[in-house]
Write a structure and sequence with these properties.
The complex is a heterodimer. Helix content of chain A is about 0%, strand content about 50%. Chain A is mainly β. In chain A, the strands form two sheets. In chain A, strands 2, 4, 5, 6, 9, 10 and 11 form a seven-stranded mixed beta sheet that branches. In chain A, strands 1-3-8-7 form a four-stranded antiparallel beta sheet, with no helix packed on it. The termini of chain A are far apart. Chain B is mainly beta. Classes of the chains: A mainly beta, B mainly beta.
């Protein structure tokens, strides 16, 4: 079956512009996660969804970042007024359910470059 | 609070050598779950193994083996007879039973040269 997909794979934008990153989870997975990975760094948790609800938004770095999920499926991560420090790979993952021993399956990521 | 420490930032070995990647975790929970992921140069994280806190049995899968020791809060990963294709960043992760998110270590980059 299809894995987690993300689009675009690469995005180059100018400082101050808004960007939208999309994630399509594995069909049937109710939980969806967003992470950020800066060059040579570990994974920084941003937000997760259980269904369409986001119980934990604690990782969003500023109010310029927001995310939504509709229909319990596709999620969009929006970054407004992008800054150069937003440059990173944004990873999406999904799991059958949030918590417990459910492993997360990751997408290929979106590489964001802010000039 | 959850914390995962992967003290080895980078390891370089020559093909066919055995290598162990260390993972030490901290948790106050008695029920928790540990994971290992591989991130090859292509960038996509690949799930390798999951272990819950009640199962201390070590596991072997081909050239890969995992040693879980609650007494030292460690969940180490050994690759036997390493190959160039094993070159990747390896992440250890922890989830307490009360959490829905994973806490990742900073990763260990493994370089296997021919």
């Amino acid at each position: 079956g299809a894995g987690v997909s993300q689009s675009p794979s690469n995005k180059v934008t100018e400082k101050g512009k808004d960007v939208e990153l999309r994630c399509d989870p594995i069909s049937g997975h109710t939980a969806l996660y967003w992470y950020r990975q800066s060059l040579g760094q570990g994974l920084e948790f941003l937000i997760y969804f259980q269904g369409n609800s986001a119980p934990d938004k604690s990782g969003l770095p500023s109010d310029r970042f927001s995310a939504e999920r509709t229909g319990g499926s596709v999620s969009t991560l929006t970054i407004q007024r992008t800054q150069q420090e937003d440059s990173a790979v944004y990873l999406c993952a999904s799991s059958f359910y949030a918590g417990g021993d459910n492993e997360q399956f990751f997408g290929p990521g979106t590489r964001l470059t802010v000039l | 609070a959850q914390k995962v420490t992967q003290a080895q930032t980078e390891i370089s070995v020559v093909e066919k050598e055995d290598v162990t990647l260390d993972c030490v975790y901290e948790t106050r929970d008695t029920t928790y779950y540990l994971f290992w992921y591989k991130q090859p140069p292509s960038g996509e994280l690949v799930f390798l193994i999951r272990r819950n806190s009640f199962d201390e049995q070590n596991e072997i899968s081909g050239r890969y083996s995992w040693n879980f020791q609650k007494s030292t809060s460690s969940f180490n990963f050994t690759i036997t007879a390493s190959q160039v294709v094993d070159s990747a960043v390896y992440f250890c992760a922890l989830r307490d039973s009360g959490y829905s998110t994973l806490t990742f270590g900073k990763g260990t980059m493994l370089l296997v040269s021919p």
